[in-house]
Amino acid sequence: MSGGGGGSSAPGRFADYFVICGLDTETGLEPDELSGENFEQTPLRRTFKSKVLARYPENVEWNPFDQDAVGMLCMPKGLAFKTQADSREPQFHSFIITREDGSRTFGFSLTFFEEVTSKQICSAMQTLYHMHNAEYDILHTPPTNDKDSCSSTGDCNGTSVSKLQRFNSYDISRDTLYVSKCICLITPMSFMKACKKVLEQLHQAVTSPQPPPLPLESYIYNILYEVPLPPAGRSLKFSGVYGPIICQRPSTNELPLFDFPVKEVFELLGVENVVQLFTCALLEFQILLYSQHYQRLMTVAETITALMFPFQWQHVYVPILPASLLHFLDAPVPYLMGLHSNGLDDRSKLELPQEANLCFVDIDNHFIELPEDLPQFPNKLEFVQEISEILMAFGIPPEGNLHCSESASKMKSLRACDLVSDKRNGNIAGSPLNSYELLKENETIARLQALVKRTGVSLEKVREETSSKKDLKIQCDEEEFKVYQLNIQIREIFANRFTQMFADYEVFVIQPNQDKESWFTNREQMQNFDKASFLSDQPEPYLPFLSRFLETQMFASFIDNKIMCHDEDDKDPVLRVFDSRVDKIRLLNVRTPTLRTSMYQKCTTIDEAEKSIELRLAKIDHTAVHPHLLDMKIGQGKYELGFFPKLQSDVLSTGPASNKIVLKQRYLLLAFLFSVPIQKYIQEARNLGSTIRQPKLSNLSPSVIAQTNWKFVEGLLKECRNKTKRMLVEKMGREAVELGHGEVNITGVEENTLIASLCDLLERIWSHGLQVKQVRSRYSCMLQKNSVLLDLGILLDSERRKSDTSPAMSPLRISLVQDMRHIQNISEIKTDVGKARAWVRLSMEKKLLSRHLKQLLSDHELTKKLYKRYAFLRCDDEKEQFLYHLLSFNAVDYFCFTNVFTTILIPYHILIVPSKKLGGSMFTANPWICISGELGETGVLQIPRNILEMTFECQNLGKLTTVQIGHDNSGLYAKWLVEYVMVRNEITGHTYKFPCGRWLGKGMDDGSLERILVGELLTSNTEVDERQCRTPPLQQSPSMIRRFVTISPNNKPKLNTGQIQEAIGEAVNGIVKHFHKPEKERGSLTLLLCGESGLVSALEQVFQHGFKSPRLFKNVFIWDFLEKAQTYYETLEQNEMVPEENWQTRARNFCRFITAINNTPRNIGKDGKFQMLVCLGARDHLLHHWIALLADCPITAQMYEDIALIKDHTLVNSLIRVLQTLQEFNITLEASLVKGIDI
């Protein structure tokens, strides 16, 4: 966490080192090749190597000095030279050194300019200018005649003068040369304000005409050895050269130490941008900060990570990226880095990888470029409003202060077309000719300002209130106190969001049932948080953000920390503070703990937090020893005005002996306390899953860079393995649990979230080591370049099921380019990245992702051209394993394309197969068809006569469920025997078969002119070697003529009563299971009602059992029996011979439904009517009543034999009990089943 040091730092000492960096006159000017500066620049603009000139003390055992890292971060751009004509204001910046174990050391640096006294350096600079001017003249000399003719004109004279001014800007006889120098404090904790004052006062001492009261060594010795760290919850005063310096440290039950001005971040970026950047950081996108000022980079980075409390950034964190480490921008991992701008290049000149997943923040220009598909932070509008109210109370406009950066003027000159074309700009929209006006017109900001106005908050009122509260005398100045106030108020608001959102998180933590050692050993296989249950309790608007946040490394580490720390004493300090806040919220909240609401709850802890700081600053707890004269030799301690002196190392190399012993003892005690295994587990758990550690600054040899890149490759492969396994476990659900791959309560995390994270991974793999940086999408780049090579048109020979020897559709070919063209034709997808992700989803749905990528990568020449040698896609073994992991997705069925792009137009191909034996070719009527799916239906499509195959386009229907097919009964031969219908989605290749096997025509079969067919999704093997495991097939509509009793009863197998009972039980059980599944995992209810083993089919068996044989050549249907029963009950009611009221209601309902179905305008035939009755009875929970009614009906005695199931009271009672179980479910029928009936 920001402000905290590493666990290895010694307690008690405010600063570990005082360092001086600058020009080493003995080695002279050495160009800094790693900084990447162009040698076409003038020598004064070039960078030269800086060196650590001195450090005091030489080394401390608890924090070994890292010379390379300190030298690089004190002066990230190396040495800078200026003349008396340039501005030479001192510049302060802070930095962080993160060790490989994750612990941190803080640095604070003041860079100023000193006159160069070395004649050799001045001469070397003069020589460099001579060489530069000579090269420039050779390259830019105009033709001779032009030169002669121009030499007399004023214009040309002016130009030559400006050339001289530009290129002869250093003349040893005329100019004074200055070089940058830096003084720096290395500290275990981040007391930024105090360290800045110490360094500024030291610099003031050497630039003031009057010498300081004591030699500089006295002050430096004091800060290194005699000023302690303030204990937790206490304040400390110590002496600088010219005045007292105060710092205060929060107690263990407050938010952790943070000493950077939040005000500056909101002034630079504005509330809207800060919240968007904060969201990107929480979701672990790659974040690149960009500014001319090192301190701004540091302030923004530290503020964003501090506002994450209680979560901690787990990935690469380099707020100031030295020029020599620019190759780290290529890292295919989440990172938060700061890149220094020279103030000249604009955004378009930056070549950045991974732009689709990158959040780019141009701090100086008040501009943020967001990654694609960024979900909104929960309650964002209310959150922004609450922050804005606080900012306005402190006089800070919510849209930020554009004038606070030198680049404000640049904003006005930004090209309008550039901003309009970039729709991902989080802050500027519309016409950007006047950026400030635009910000004022921002809808969100306008609403916020109106709200604040309505509440009556004004700056004057707040000032009056704050002044009236000031009973205590604050020891620091008023401006500094305001910084403390604003910091804590903003931080409390952010912390409150997490305490509200995760108030019940402990309920969902899955505690391991083994000891910690075993748990940690198997950590990767363990689930630590019940995500599905947690998400099911959250308000719907929170889900897009939370479902992705729960997948981050920072959340996993937070929960790991919770599991490892059972005891209060073991707890990480951050976790202890958060848990105590959560406990308070639970006590205050009267609502049900597990029931979340989206009602926004404002922060109530601000006053208490503010009071704690105020008390510490009013009453100073500790005052350090004052600086004093040291035991220095005569003549030591002198200094020259304007030059930081060479300090006396003999007095600064060691501290007082007694103090050293005490420090050593305390350090050993702390080391012992922190050596318990739990600390090891916590640290390892934090690092788990993040194979890419912090970049090491001390060794930048080619072998180390190569090793780092190899770690990236290994990390990507490991992440791919873990993601594919996770996705398969989630998809397989309970089946995976039974195989031992997870726990029952873990499955059900949003499938879209997992697929989006897979797309992120693929984007990073495609970007790793890429030569071309300008292309928005790496997939698109590869696909377009391969388009000629890849249009192979491989036929999908196995598209047909092997058992089908009947006519089938022409096979759909497998073509990567064809799939890409489908995606490019989708107008709803606007960006290259969106198209690439849609292509990944389509390939997954078609089970071709691994195959397509393998095909893409088979062009080795193109791969060599596009990628550097170390790129992941050029590591053959890892690439093969990567493709193998993706191949495992073929084991399950994904509908991740169909279910996401619900509004796109899709071409469907229909094939109708009539019976060849019974004169299908003589058919004279006009057929029609209507196809229904989970997302909609086509409406009636007229089929041209004698055309059995056609393609049409309509909005995505989703998974297909039913086909309604019929004709208009026109012509001489209006009889049609249809075997089956096939429908294929021409984009995804999904083919559905709808068996029929029934006549459509008056006087044929049951007299139906239309039928509802239930479909089965066919599966296919795309390659023999890519063996696919197929999930159980969906049910289909019955494919045999069995719904009427014919003169040949042997045509169909007769079931006994036991088999019929079993069929009823299985059909009802299927419906019960359907409703007990999570809603997103449920299949189609239509299949369970009307499919081959569905409820309608099972009840048909009930009514057909024992049905009396009809007369010769006459078909009798179940519907005939039901109509006779209806007539009987209606006659009974007319004669007023009704046994009881309950019975009467059931009879009336039964008659009403039979009448309504008979009156429907649809020609669905007698079996179709029976199907509709069963579906309506199931919907309205009436089936068991009707079975009881029919069992007692005299018509049953006439039409059924004595052995019939319907006449056996024991079996009927059993049937009624089974059907009663459907009463608790809300059955919604598909429109195609009840079309034309309103009941």
TrEMBL record:
Pfam families per record: dDENN, DENN, PLAT, RUN, uDENN
| All residue ranges annotated as the UDENN domain in the record | 32-572
Q: What GO annotations for molecular function exist for this entry?
A: guanyl-nucleotide exchange factor activity; small GTPase binding
InterPro entries for the chain: cDENN_dom, dDENN_dom, DEN5A/B, DENN_C, PLAT/LH2_dom, PLAT/LH2_dom_sf, PLAT_RAB6IP1, RUN2_DENND5A
BP GO terms, sorted: retrograde transport, endosome to Golgi
PROSITE patterns reported for this sequence: DENN (PS50211), PLAT (PS50095), RUN (PS50826)
Looking at the UniProt record for this protein, which Gene Ontology cellular component terms does it annotate, in alphabetical order?
A: cytosol; membrane; trans-Golgi network
Taking every annotated instance into account, which residue ranges of this chain make up the domain RUN? 749-902, 1086-1234
Gene3D superfamilies reported for this sequence: 1.20.58.900, 3.30.450.200, 3.40.50.11500, 6.10.250.800, PLAT/LH2 domain
Q: Which residues form the PLAT domain?
A: 906-1014
Its localization reads: Membrane
Q: Which UniProt keywords apply?
A: Guanine-nucleotide releasing factor, Membrane, Phosphoprotein, Repeat
Superkingdom of the source species? Eukaryota
Its predominant location is: membrane
- Report the family membership: Belongs to the RAB6IP1 family.
PANTHER family (UniProt xref) = DENN DOMAIN-CONTAINING PROTEIN 5A, PINSTRIPE, ISOFORM A
Q: What is this protein called?
A: DENN domain containing 5A
